[in-house]
Amino acid sequence: MSPQRSARLDTPRETKRQPVVRRFSRDPDRFGVFAEEFARFMGTARFLLYMTGFVILWVSWNLLGPVALRWDDYPFIFLTLILSLQASYAAPLILLAQNRQEVRDKVIAEQDRQANARGHADMEFLAREVASLRMSVGEVATRDFLRSELRSLLTELDERDRARPEDGAEDQPVPAPRPR
Description:
Layout: H1 28-42, H2 45-64, H3 77-139, H4 143-163
């Protein structure tokens, strides 16, 4: 018996064959990252200085260099072609970088919107809690209320004490304080 036949029935057999030639695997974000880096570099002063230096060298060599070694005479057609080619590749790369940035901005805006919604819900909950606490505190006896009640009871007791005869008639019942 082969080892595959003696394997358990609940484990799948390995039937997938490995390809003889490996397929090219590409990272879909690799080109986008390149486009962003390229667009970021083209927006710097360094790129402008490099480009300016390149054009100055090109023009000065083709105007002032030895006649036999010049490759692009005065109208600089080849330079124009190179700059046009560079611009034709730069524009789509910059647009691709902007599109990727727009997607990132949308994701960030959605996350901000969700965070704001959670914050708004939290504020509404806290406002309801504060309102219920205010209502509860309105029903609780305050210190001033207790003091005034105790003063009125003390005044009432003092009045009863004064109203009681002092000749020893302690057998008379004292009336109970009236409820409020």
